[in-house]
Amino acid sequence: MNKLPSLYKITDEMIELANFLEDPDSYDENGELDPVLQERFMVLSKDFNEKAISCSYIKQMFDDELNAIDREIERLTALKKSKKRAKENLDNYIISNMQRLHLDKIESETRTLQLTKSVETKVIDFKALPTKYQHSKIELVPDKKKIKEDIQKGIDVPGAMLVENNHLKIK
Q1: Closest to 54 (Cα-Cα) out of 17, 10, 13
Q2: pLDDT for 80-120, tens place per residue?
Q3: Phi and psi at residue 156, in whole multiples of 5°?
Q4: If the chain, 171 residues long, is cut into consecutive pieces of 10 residues, what is the mean pLDDT of each piece?
Q5: Can you say whether the dihedral through the CA atoms of 12, 17, 18, 20 is positive or negative?
Q6: Beta partners for 107?
Q7: Cα separation of 117 and 99, whole Å?
């Protein structure tokens, strides 16, 4: 199999060839492009298309891998939540049975289980709390939709601008 140069190198060569097309010496007296340059341009165009298509397959593979990773993260997150719930249920199971038997401590050769006291602040009704026991947390974020609408209407928005991006769509 013939290994193609990189897409970048093919593009460079095509640009260089395009510069030759601006040179009047690249054409014969009838205004026809030199056949060697014409052939080279056709070969480069074919190579460019092949390389770009090959790159798109790799991009698709990355997209598929990213989707698989996202699904695995979701699966592991659900598994972690399930294990955490099972651990908490087991803790509560041991605690409730120790309390039923009025045991504060269980000792063995390998471990000791001991009930300890802690105090937790539980807010039952946030709205009923006096304001001195509340604090606000404000996060300012740009309203990109409004900014875009205003700039498109011709309104100057200091600190923002519209940038046109190109996205690769593969069908």
Answers
A1: 10
A2: 999 999 999 999 999 999 999 999 999 999 999 999 988 88
A3: -75, 125
A4: 81 87 79 83 92 93 97 98 96 93 93 89 89 88 93 93 75 59
A5: positive
A6: 112
A7: 12
From the list 136, 99, 129, the residue with the least C-alpha distance to 114 is 99
Token pair in block for residue 151: 């700039």
- When computed from its CA atoms, the radius of gyration of the chain, rounded to whole angstroms, is 34
CA distance 47 to 135: 63
**SS3 category, 114:** strand
Residue 114 phi/psi, 5-degree rounding, is -140, 135
Report the SS3 class of residue 105: strand
The DSSP bridge partners found for residue 105 are 114
* pTM flag (> 0.70): no
